[in-house]
Amino acid sequence: MERVKRRLGFQHCFTVERTGRSGGLAVLWDKQVQLHLQSYSANHIDMEVAGVVQDKWRFTGFYGCPERHNRRKSWALIRELARQSSLPWLIGGDFNDLLSSNEKIGGAPQLEWMLRGFQEVINDCDLTEIPMVRGRFTWRRGRTEEKLDRCLVTTAWRNLFPATKVSLLPPLSSDHTPLWVTLNGKVHRMQRQRRKFIFENMWLCDNTCQEVIQSSWESVERSGDWSGLALKIQRCSNRLESWNRFHFGHVREKLRQCIKDIDSLRLQPRSEEVLAEEAKKANEMEEWLEREEVMWKQRSKEIWIHEGDRNTRFFHQRASRRRELNKIEGLMGENEEWHTKPE
């Protein structure tokens, strides 16, 4: 986990080692947040959180016992955790439990005593679920899909973060779908000036890039002076920018569209055609993720990982840091006066 922590750009982590090939828990956080360990086991990590808002609150990462005969142990642990503190509380993770029969399609139906037992735990602990923005199921194997992962909160926590949303990220190498929790609404960004042309290395992943370069280069007649070369470069950059907008596309928009398409397919009845189309979209998303990695690797100007690693957040941080270092806040004039506005 130390290696994962460094690659993701976090400063701290706490782990519970797995037993054999199953289990294992981890909580990672950066220096802007203060987390204090309260308790842990093979099925949970309980943290007290400070630094996000003025009030302290609790976060518990939870992993329910997958074995049917141990299900009551999971429920007893949730009840015990609820009694330990009155702070606003979020508990989330893989509960390995369902709240209703509608949370499963395919396979054998969930037993009634298991549904009722998990419902009673939620009610006894005064917990409510944060609805998911899109998608219904968080686990799939073959034609069976279930909602095993969720985020549960107390009323006090909900009042502390009323704009919280939970959405599903695309599953890649796991049969579980990751949950993405945002505590506060919109993130405001300052408008930036149009940046100068930069050839993106990720364009080379598309075979038509070479055609655009060749055709735009040959569209300008040969000239013996530097002006002809400058015109070729200008024509080539203009056409590449246009090609990028209308053919290659914005990487993040393409990824969002892939996620949207996969979510839509998952809401349709299971069939061979739907499964094949979903697999096709997953492969397309994998290609765009690889292009995104190349993009941030170029932005960072630091080759810190080998091909095949996917560390988008790290390279985004490195690129943002470089942009901050290159930013000129102002200039000192001859009379030693500080000027911050262009004149």
How are the elements arranged and paired?
Layout lengths: L1 H7 L3 E5 L8 E5 L4 E8 L2 E7 L6 E7 L7 H13 L5 E6 L9 E2 L6 H13 L3 E2 L9 E3 L2 E3 L2 E5 L1 H6 L4 E4 L10 E4 L25 H11 L7 H23 L2 H16 L5 H29 L11 H15 L4 E2 L5 E2 L4
Parallel strand pairs: 5-6
Antiparallel strand pairs: 1-2, 3-4, 4-5, 6-11, 7-10, 8-11, 9-10, 12-13, 14-15
Helix pairs in contact: 2-3, 5-6, 7-8, 8-9
Description of the structure:
- The protein is built from nine helices and 15 strands.
- Strand 3 and strand 4 form a beta hairpin.
- About 5% of the residues have low confidence.
List keywords for this structure.
39% helix; 6-stranded mixed sheet; 343 residues; 3-stranded antiparallel sheet; 9 helices; alpha+beta
